[in-house]
């Protein structure tokens, strides 16, 4: 929290303007704007309250300030200590709006919010879509690749965009994900006299790169097609990962083992997870792909693997919640946010040290998961599990045989199995001392 000492309780009022040329304000919102000592908003937002300002005896120029960069906003608000400050927000301040930023930077007791209809709601109402039937994603100021975590069969997406995620770019993403017949509906200038709603097939829109859209728009995607490029359910095929080797080979935890590890870690909202010895990113990618609000720190020192780790994060759209850390553990762990879950997949001979470090760092209720293939590693993990204080231990050995159809020496098809070394996986839960 910042600047809480510089403002009075309930002294910052965040007013949603709705979706209209003239702000659609509640009586309470109108009243607070009339009483405000200072009003902060973009030029477009200030225009929507022109009529309300002109009705007030105070002069507009003395009461309004054009919204600066967010980095400058705290000091600007602090300069109005003791004043009643109104900040204008597009639509609903707390639905993909500026309200979330204020909640993070000021205590709730310093803020009052005035909701209004958002562009997301307006678009859904124009198209007759129930809000509970759509998935909303904001790409405004966020990596374009994030859309790849949402492009699933029969999904309806409402997308907030910026200059890097224009409708043609979204169409290209749909095509690349195997959804070329998807429909993109672009809703421009909602609530304005210039409102326009146009519908395009992804394959058609991709060919119209010169087509321009107003910056004030929302894109609705009706995802159509069989897909098959991006995962729809946990257990991404090994062949989908980039490893620098033949498809399905290389430094990733194999799918069957990966599923067990994911199940034992049970990633939850807001988790901070360390993936030590991340390799090419199989575990990190799946953790982040299925848990958008979890943050995964993928620690790896091998240059080639780091390259493929980054490529896999980009491919699956998880660059926003996988933080790649180049370095060796345990030294590379020193400056990281403290985790509540840790996976150790590679240790470079430092397993004893890593286990002690991880156990000391984890809070009560924290989870440590580690895997072993060779006997010496399994022995170290077993000894640690047996001697760790206040530990609840679960151990699973996974033996896998994969079968492929091959042509034998008689030119006949034959199902051939490939044996893999068994993998032992430990889950160690840190619990309170009951004695």
- Stretches with pLDDT under 50, minimum 5 residues: 1-6, 57-61
Strand ordering within the main sheet: 13-12-11-14-15-19-16
Say what oligomer this is. single chain
Residue-averaged pLDDT, rounded? 92
Q: Which overall shape is indicated by the principal axes computed on the Cα atoms?
A: flat
Q: Which structural category fits the helices and strands? A: alpha/beta
Describe this structure in words.
- With 435 residues, the protein is α/β, with parallel strands linked by helices.
- The protein contains 14 helices and 19 strands.
- Helix 10 (255-265) packs across helix 11 (282-290).
- Mean pLDDT is 92; it is low at 1-6 and 57-61.
Descriptive labels:
19 strands; flat; alpha/beta; 435 residues; five-stranded parallel beta sheet; single chain
Helix-strand blueprint:
Elements: E1 12-16, H1 27-35, E2 38-41, H2 43-48, H3 50-55, H4 60-63, E3 64-66, H5 73-78, E4 85-89, H6 99-105, E5 111-114, H7 119-127, E6 135-138, E7 156-160, H8 167-176, E8 183-188, E9 196-201, H9 202-205, E10 217-222, H10 255-265, E11 272-276, H11 282-290, E12 295-300, H12 303-315, E13 322-326, E14 341-344, H13 351-361, E15 367-372, H14 375-387, E16 391-398, E17 401-407, E18 413-419, E19 423-430
Parallel strand pairs: 1-4, 1-5, 2-3, 2-4, 6-7, 11-12, 11-14, 12-13, 14-15
Antiparallel strand pairs: 7-10, 8-9, 8-10, 15-19, 16-19, 17-18
Helix pairs in contact: 10-11
């Amino acid at each position: 929290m910042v600047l809480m000492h510089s403002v009075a309780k309930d002294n910052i009022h965040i007013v949603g303007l709705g979706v209209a040329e003239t702000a659609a304000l509640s009586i309470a919102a109108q009243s607070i704007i009339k009483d405000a000592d200072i009003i902060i908003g973009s030029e477009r937002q200030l225009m929507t309250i022109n009529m309300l300002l002109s009705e007030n005896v105070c002069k507009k120029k003395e009461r309004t300030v054009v919204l600066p960069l967010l980095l400058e906003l705290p000091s600007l608000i602090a300069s109005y200590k003791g004043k009643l400050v109104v900040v204008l927000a597009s639509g609903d301040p707390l639905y993909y709006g500026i309200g979330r930023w204020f909640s993070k930077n000021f205590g709730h007791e310093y803020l009052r919010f005035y909701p209004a209809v958002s562009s997301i709601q307006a678009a859904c109402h124009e198209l007759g879509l129930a809000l509970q039937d759509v998935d909303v994603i904001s790409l405004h100021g966020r990596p374009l690749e994030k859309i790849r975590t949402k492009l699933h069969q029969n999904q309806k997406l409402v997308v907030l965009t910026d200059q890097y995620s224009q409708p043609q770019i979204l169409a290209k993403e749909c095509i690349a994900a195997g959804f070329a017949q998807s429909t993109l509906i672009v809703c421009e200038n909602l609530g304005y006299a210039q409102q326009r709603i146009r519908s395009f097939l992804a394959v058609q829109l991709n060919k119209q790169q010169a087509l321009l859209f107003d910056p004030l728009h929302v894109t609705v995607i009706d995802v159509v097609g069989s897909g098959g490029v991006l995962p729809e359910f946990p257990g991404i095929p090994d062949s989908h990962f980039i490893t620098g080797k033949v498809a399905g080979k290389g430094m990733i935890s194999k799918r069957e083992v990966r599923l067990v590890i994911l199940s034992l870690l049970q990633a939850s909202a807001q988790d901070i997870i360390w993936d030590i010895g991340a390799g090419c990113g199989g575990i990190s990618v799946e953790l982040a792909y299925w848990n958008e609000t979890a943050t995964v720190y993928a620690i790896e020192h091998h240059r080639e693997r780091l390259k493929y780790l980054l490529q896999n994060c980009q491919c699956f759209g998880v660059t926003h919640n996988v933080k790649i850390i180049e370095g060796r553990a345990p030294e590379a762990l020193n400056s990281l946010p403290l985790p509540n879950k840790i996976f150790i997949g590679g240790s470079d001979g430092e397993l004893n040290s890593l286990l002690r470090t991880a156990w000391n760092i984890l809070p009560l209720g924290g989870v440590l998961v580690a895997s072993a293939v060779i006997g010496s590693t399994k022995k170290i993990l077993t000894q640690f599990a047996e001697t760790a204080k206040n530990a609840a231990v679960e151990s699973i050995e996974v033996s896998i045989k994969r079968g492929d159809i091959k042509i034998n020496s008689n030119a006949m098809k034959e199902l051939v199995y490939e044996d893999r070394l068994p993998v032992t996986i430990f889950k160690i839960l840190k619990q309170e001392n009951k004695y």
